[in-house]
């Protein structure tokens, strides 16, 4: 009879402890599922307990080879969750260059299927991580965001413009024009934080908003 130090083997699943900081048993399937991996990192980002650097690195190693199989929802959720983890637990350089290259490649291939929330969350995550998106991703992001601007809510509008300012990236004129038009139409739904963040972003970017918007 085999003995396991950290787990118990069942026919289809192995239970392991991620670390002593979690004190829980986490299922790891022999054939990992991209949706399960995205849900796992989201749960980690919502966990009030301290997340150790080694736990995150272990997840990144498992997820990276499967990123081409992630759908647009899982891709956006993953990047946003990683950004929240870095901020909440003060993790240093949590994501490798190879992981970001794989994420960006997969996201570019699926950018037409991103909804407004996925677009805004992804760009905002880049700004929280302090990672500059590649030029091809930025071009594709702005094209898709401009085309789907009508589906952006006030939070998505504010977060997107704020992310540009935090990254030090000047948006394209078509995106800015579409952004201001949609923002004026939905200005009544902006809360005080969204309003202040939007004006702050204009200031940082050195952009003078249109008179109708002001």
Write structural notes for this entry.
The protein has 214 residues and is mainly α. 58% of the residues lie in helices and 5% in strands. The protein is built from 9 helices and 3 strands; from the N terminus they run E-E-E-H-H-H-H-H-H-H-H-H. It has helices at 34-46, 53-63, 72-89, 97-110, 116-129, 135-147, 154-167, 173-185, 192-205; strands at 7-9, 13-16, 26-29. A 3-stranded antiparallel β-sheet has the order 1-2-3, with no helix packed on it. A hairpin with a 3-residue loop joins strand 1 (7-9) and strand 2. Helix 1 packs antiparallel against helix 2, helix 3 runs antiparallel to helix 4 and helix 3 (72-89) packs parallel to helix 5 (116-129). Residues 1-31 have low confidence and may be disordered.
Amino- and carboxy-terminal Cα gap: 74 Å
The percentage of residues in β strands lies in 5-15%
Shape: globular
How would you sum up the major sheet? 3 strands, antiparallel
Q: What secondary-structure arrangement, pairings included, does this model have?
A:
Layout: E1 7-9, E2 13-16, E3 26-29, H1 34-46, H2 53-63, H3 72-89, H4 97-110, H5 116-129, H6 135-147, H7 154-167, H8 173-185, H9 192-205
Antiparallel strand pairs: 1-2, 2-3
Helix pairs in contact: 1-2, 1-3, 3-4, 3-5, 5-7, 6-8, 7-9
Give a short summary of the structure:
The protein is mainly α and 214 residues long.
Question: What attributes does this structure have?
Answer:
3 strands, 5% strand, 9 helices, mainly alpha, 214 residues, disordered N terminus, single chain, 3-stranded antiparallel β-sheet
